[in-house]
Amino acid sequence: MTATVSATRGAARLHAAFAQAAAQGRAAFIPYMTAGYPSAHAFPALATDLLTHADILEVGIPYSDPLGDGPTIQRASEQALAGGTSTRHSLRLIAGLRAQTDKPIVVMTYVNPIYAVGPREFMRLAQEAGVDGLILPDLPPDQDLEIADLAAEHGLAVTFLIAPTSTPARVALVARACTGFLYAVSVTGVTGAREGAALGEVPAMLALARQHARVPVAVGFGVKDAATAHQVAQVADGVVVGSVFITAAANGQDVGALAASIAAGCGRDQARSRG
Where is the active site (predicted)? Predict the structure, then answer.
């Protein structure tokens, strides 16, 4: 019971951000950036540019074997690691952001970095840094309850992923396990911007997920511009965008201007409440 009560801190902040966006007739905008990219020195300004337009900021812990990430984010992780950004350093960078903003911040991390630090110590550091939730792409919610329970003890919400290949039983299991939001992958494969903007199986997947989820549902993978963000916003509670910001930063483009454009695309053609 104690864990459940304390978990409401991060979950409440996330749910409030989704509710505020919905009240304004749009999906929540959730940009992503790898911690320590393009360098530990440059990351804070880049993340601040994203935060200016974000409802929720997603920060990735750099990891040497990110199986769910495409080549763009993989390269960003490699560069951050080469520059000395460890898991602990990533959380210190997030603490610096927290001192500047009240907006929710979620951490995307694979399981190995958590175990490398130690699950309880990782959760303690994340809580102290002001993290609101964890996105756990390689943690099946029915196979390792320790991390989810420890997250709850430290007030952190948890988010798991579903994909078009997920069975109805799997969608139900994952949806019920999420306390922050449910992350629906729009396509099979890894992260990265893609040609085309077809939603494909996403609407049906979200309809199924909402039968079981008690949290908002965000969609990511493949969103590359305002047009694709707008399409996703018609069916999702949140739009996650990552690789295009990594690419923009690598090319010296104005990441803040790009974020403003994509955030503007998250409006809905007709405002509607979501259950």
Answer: 58 (proton acceptor), 69 (proton acceptor)
